[in-house]
Every structure is written in structure tokens, then in C-alpha cells.
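G., the chain you wanted modeled:
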Amino acid sequence: MSGADERPAPREPRRPPPPLTAFGGLCPTCRHVRPVSSSKGSTFLLCGLAAADPTFPRYPPQPVLVCRGHQR
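Predicted structure as C-alpha cells:
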């Protein structure tokens, strides 16, 4: 009987995302940022201002040291 007793291999437990302070720069303290985690466990910072203003990058390279849209 093939397939009846076969079970998928257990997945590795998902690691929690790093604290935002691990990114450094301005983004972790900005009210417009939203952390986004990929299915592979990477975490990216999504700039909420990019939805309304295309001059802001959606996922700015970190660390951002100067930003005209930064708000605490």
C-alpha cells in the first residue's frame, strides 16, 4: 500500500521576525512602516507612504538615515 502511511516531513519551526530595532535607521520608529515577513522567514519594512506617493520606495534599502516622510 503506497501513500497510506506516508507523512510529509516535518517543517522547521518558524523563527520569530527580528525586532524592528535590528534594522537601524529611521524606519523602525516611523508610524508609516509595516513589517512584512516572507514565507522563507525574511522580514522587510514596507513604507506605507509609497501607496499614495510613488517617490517613496515600497521597500527602502536599510538603514534609511534621511527621510522627508518620517513621523514618530
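Residues 31 and 71 are 6 Å apart (CA to CA).

Shout if anything looks off.
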